[in-house]
Every structure is written in C-alpha cells, then in structure tokens.
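Continuing the series of single-chain predictions for the mutant panel. This is the parent chain; the variants come on the following pages.
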Amino acid sequence: VQNEKDSSEALKLYELNVYNYPKSINALLTLAEQYEKRNMTKKALERYMDIIKIDGVNKKAMERIEQLKN
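Parent structure:
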C-alpha cells in the first residue's frame, strides 16, 4: 500500500513539473515514460505529441509514438 501511495505522489510531482515547465522536453519525456510504466498509454501518447509540437524531430518521441500506436 505504501508503494502505491509513493508511486501516486511521484506521478503528481512529474505532472506538477510539466505544469510548471510546459515546454520542457525533459519534463514531458519523463512524464510520458511514467505514464507508460503505469499502462496509461493515451496519456503517454498525448505527452509525446506535446514533445513533437515543440521539437518536430525528436527521435525518442517519434519512436515511442510509433510503438504505442501499434
């Protein structure tokens, strides 16, 4: 139970980081990866798409979008 609470709190911090730095590729990438770890595919895709809007040639985001859509 404690691990679930810690995990939930950690995710909130990642989300807060993106809220505070919405154009930070690093913050968005980290949040997307955390969503993936939690099987939150739709949210992960949204964050990867946000990265592409900022950096249209971001290889990591493009690769993850391709893999998650398949």
